Amino acid sequence: MKSHKLKLLAAGVSLAVAQIASAGTDTYFVPLTASAAVTMPNSNEELTAPWEAPAGLIQSNLTSLHEVEDAAHQSVVRVPGLGTGASMMDMIAFDDTGDYLFIPHETFVGAGVTRYDIANDRSDVLFRGDLEGLNGDWSNDWGAFDPSTWTTNGTLFLAEEWSGEGRVMEVLNPMADPADIEIRELESIANVSHEGLRFSNDGGALYFVDEDRSGSIYKLVFNDPSDYAKGGTTYVLTATNFAGDPTENYNHPANSGEARWGQANWTPITDADGNPLTATDPFDNAGGPGNRAGRRAADEVNGTPYGRPEDIEVGTLDNGNEVLYFAATSERTVYSVEMLDNNEAIVREFASDANTPKNAGFPATSGEMNSPDNLAQDHYGNIYVIEDAPNGSDVGGDVWFARDTDGDGVAESLDHMLSNRVDGSESTGMIFHPVDGNKFAIAIQHPDSTDLSQVPEGHGDAIWMFEIPHNMLNPSVEKRGMNPSVKNANARARFKR
Question: For the chain, which domains are there?
């Protein structure tokens, strides 16, 4: 196990918080009827209102790469020579009070994290890599921090996706002075291309995914939830009727038509002490970005392959069972996994572009859910689906409200909520405030305005806050007899155990 105590120079901020609530409520806004047109870099829309939004929703800028770099007392990560990838603020996380945001940076090398103090509008780098990953030395360097998650122990998780070694890092004292920050690698978590990281409702397990076109879904049941380094049993999700080739992509001819839904099991790849049950050691991080040993271990036990599973959320169905949601970007689909006894589960299609009605009961939309990437969950159990487009196209990527009013893990409608109009960017890291359920934060990542060689004085990666007026959301909640103060109390208790 590696421990580091680092004094560093630069970083960014990211959000992720799990909620305990039953899904979901009626739609509380009038949905959009089309995706937005993308505007020029540094346009008035990028600077004042990056998303086209329904009437009533209020969006305001918290911070941006341009603002931080203009202030001598602040710090942020900008990796030299990477253009629009120089900062890449990704999946932000709130602390348990909602006073701070943590912003991870999805840079090729030199990845780090920034803590953003909302009230004082101040960004401070907590740690960053030394750039030696360029030379193959990852001992004090990290790449592609995609997810960040505030933990039930008051620490912070960060994890590597497409660069680095597929590691999960834990910041042990995320509220400390940057000079005193302590981090450690969690060698108890399998090495994969990490994106979604969320805890079970009781805090005793961690769900995570492997962001690959042959990616699987994992669960680590902790031996001691008060110390994640002590590890536990790692499982991979295996659909009972899947008879394809787990080493191939989800859409390979060997897997075409094979069932990846229905009855499923959590199949162990380690014993209770974390020792591998597979020939491949899932914790092996040798070999750099090309080695994701957890993936090969999952293949050995027929771990079901999905098409780029990315973000995840954990909630509760109306029948009281825990449910895991995950977005499969390549499949234009979001799945739900209902947890049963004895490590059994049921996998369902929660929502898809092909099969789920859009704006049901409202005027139709021409928008498509063509790249579901991130997920968010509000205090009432509603799931939001965030696309990673436009990525250079002339039509913005969207945010969808997945309406599941009966809480059965299958959405009745995808309602068009937001559309991103910032050139070259994607929306990411949408997360609801842990105390005020009518607020959520969301990031603009890798816009063209981050590349100062092409856009001098560019606004760059940015974090925004949305406010949903209480007279919009609360009446929808009251229709189902929900008490938002109770839901918020449940969410707060989650962090203060």
Answer: 3-495 (2.120.10.30)
